[in-house]
């Protein structure tokens, strides 16, 4: 059931990134306004910059009807700063959420609009690699008692690549962790879901004492995992 | 203002689409958003059809390339919206096909479906039941012929303990979640977590937390 996968594949994230605004400089005239669902764009005059959704900018660029103004975060200086920042600390730097998608699409369709195209491309690749190794390091910290994962600074592409692995791993950990508990029977039709601590009706006395013993002997400490927790825990 | 309202229509629909994709449960059908989007698509489609007719009539005219260009752009936008709508509806239909008995038995969940989806469910379940009966159920002894027996665990229910990625939209302070031991989590605005769906379910309805 393809439609029930819980993550976006790269084509879908690229589709989502299409709605991001970007500035272009058109070289054609259009006196009408383009009426889209999320706003009106136009009229278009040559050499007057205008902000449009990314999908429109790329279409126009493919037909050579405009020049795309590369966003600030895709310039050599900015990327070099980010790369330095990424290499110097364990925490992930803040990037545009659609960093990978937008840069890939601009490389493909508008390479001439980018200053120092080769340099920018290598920088983007380096940043991606540094972040990927950081994420891999962070994942190693998932233990048998992790109950949630903090993913605040991931870009959309990184998050969607991580999701299948992380969700199934955490789910399995949860299942193992809760395997000593009484089985919750489904409640139909309008009964409220009972909490595990209150579900005494399904237990016999013998089962209860066994579970209590298990919980005492295995001391479990639940930990929250973040990529910067490693630093703070060592302090 | 109209423009700002329209920005929220698209982004709220994309949020509803994302929620639907990530969660094991079926969310309430977004009737208002979908009606607005379909209205927009219909008006645009009418203009597109009118333009295409006009282009066909006038064979070679300088203004045509301008009109064709404009029509193509409008077509692209309509295509994008259609893709979103279709994907949203297909996801919901797949979920309906996966949990038909659960939805039929549960009045609350059934109200999340649109009228057309409820019809789909009724038709699908009828076919499913007929198929089961004809294949083998008729030949089993009477007590074993049920396909909606709750006690035997026959009813597939959406697993609310799946892990999902979510984003916090408001400062929620320290929240206590119940597990074997309770654990506390400080939920600040713009944080994202991969967490048990059951734990953040109450926050999703009020839009304090959204799935990403």
Notable traits:
heterodimer; A: 235 residues; alpha+beta; two-stranded antiparallel sheet; 8 helices; disordered C terminus; B: 212 residues; Methane Monooxygenase Hydroxylase, Chain G, domain 1; Ribosomal Protein L9, domain 1; 3 domains; flat; nucleus (chain A)
Commentary on this structure:
The complex is a heterodimer of chains A (235) and B (212). Chain A is of the alpha+beta class and 235 residues long. Chain A is built from eight helices and seven strands. Chain A has helices at 10-17, 54-62, 76-88, 99-109, 117-139, 156-177, 205-217, 229-234; strands spanning 21-26, 34-36, 39-41, 50-53, 66-68, 146-150, 223-225. Chain A has a three-stranded antiparallel β-sheet. In chain A, a hairpin with a 2-residue loop joins β2 and β3. The two termini of chain A are 47 Å apart. Mean pLDDT of chain A is 79; it is low at 190-209 and 216-235. Chain B is of the alpha+beta class and 212 residues long. In chain B, 59% of the residues lie in helices and 12% in strands. Chain B is built from seven helices and five strands, in the order ααααααββββαβ. Chain B has helices at residues 2-22, 31-57, 62-98, 100-105, 107-110, 115-135, 197-205; strands at residues 163-168, 173-178, 182-187, 192-196, 209-211. Chain B has a three-stranded antiparallel β-sheet with strand order 4-1-5. In chain B, strands 2-3 form a two-stranded antiparallel sheet. In chain B, a hairpin with a 3-residue loop joins β2 (173-178) and β3. In chain B, α1 (2-22) packs across α2, α1 packs parallel to α3 and α2 packs antiparallel against α3. The model of chain B has no long low-confidence stretch (mean pLDDT 85). At the A-B interface, β2, α2, β6 and α6 of A face α1, α2, α3, β1 and β4 of B. Chain B: Residues 48-135 form the GINS subunit domain. Chain B: This is DNA replication complex GINS protein SLD5. Chain B: Keywords: DNA replication, Nucleus. Chain B: It is found in: Nucleus. Chain B: InterPro entries: GINS_A, GINS_bundle-like_dom_sf, GINS_Sld5, SLD5_C, Sld5_GINS_A.
């Amino acid at each position: 059931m393809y439609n029930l996968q819980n993550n976006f594949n790269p084509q879908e994230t690229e589709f989502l990134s299409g709605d991001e605004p970007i500035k272009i400089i058109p070289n054609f005239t259009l006196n009408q306004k383009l009426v889209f669902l999320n706003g009106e764009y136009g009229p278009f005059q040559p050499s007057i910059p205008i902000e449009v959704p990314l999908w429109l900018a790329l279409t126009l660029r493919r037909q050579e009807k405009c020049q795309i103004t590369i966003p600030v975060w895709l310039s050599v200086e900015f990327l070099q700063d980010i790369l330095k920042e990424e290499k110097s600390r364990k925490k992930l730097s803040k990037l545009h959420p659609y960093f990978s998608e937008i840069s890939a699409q601009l490389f493909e369709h508008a390479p001439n609009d980018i200053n120092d195209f080769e340099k920018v491309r290598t920088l983007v690749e380096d940043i991606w690699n540094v972040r990927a190794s950081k994420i891999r390091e962070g994942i190693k910290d998932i233990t048998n008692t992790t109950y949630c994962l903090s993913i605040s600074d991931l870009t959309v592409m990184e998050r969607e690549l991580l999701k299948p692995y992380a969700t199934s791993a955490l789910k399995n950990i949860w299942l193992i962790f809760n395997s000593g508990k009484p089985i919750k029977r489904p409640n139909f039709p309008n009964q409220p879901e009972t909490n595990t601590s209150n579900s005494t009706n399904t237990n016999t006395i013998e089962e209860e004492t066994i579970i209590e013993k298990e919980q005492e002997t295995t001391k479990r400490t639940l930990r929250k995992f973040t990529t910067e927790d490693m630093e703070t825990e060592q302090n | 203002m109209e423009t700002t309202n329209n920005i929220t229509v698209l982004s709220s629909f994309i949020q509803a689409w994302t929620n639907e994709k990530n969660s094991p449960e079926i969310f309430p059908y977004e009737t208002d958003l979908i009606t607005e989007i379909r209205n927009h698509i219909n008006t645009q489609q009418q203009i597109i059809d009118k333009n295409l007719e006009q282009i066909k009539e006038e064979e070679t005219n300088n203004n045509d390339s301008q009109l064709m260009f404009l029509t193509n752009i409008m077509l692209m936008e309509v295509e994008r919206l259609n893709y979103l709508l279709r994907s949203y509806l297909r996801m919901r239909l797949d979920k309906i096909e996966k949990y038909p008995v659960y939805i039929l038995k549960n009045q609350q969940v059934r109200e999340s479906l649109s009228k057309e989806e409820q019809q789909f469910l009724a038709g699908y379940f009828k076919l499913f039941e007929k198929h089961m009966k004809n294949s083998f159920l008729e030949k089993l002894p009477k007590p074993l012929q049920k396909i909606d027996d709750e006690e035997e665990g026959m009813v597939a229910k959406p697993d609310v303990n799946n892990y999902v990625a979510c984003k916090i939209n408001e400062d929620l302070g320290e929240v206590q979640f119940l597990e074997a031991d309770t654990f506390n989590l400080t939920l600040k605005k713009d944080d994202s977590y991969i967490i048990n769906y059951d734990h953040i379910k109450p926050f999703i309805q009020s839009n304090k937390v959204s799935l990403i």
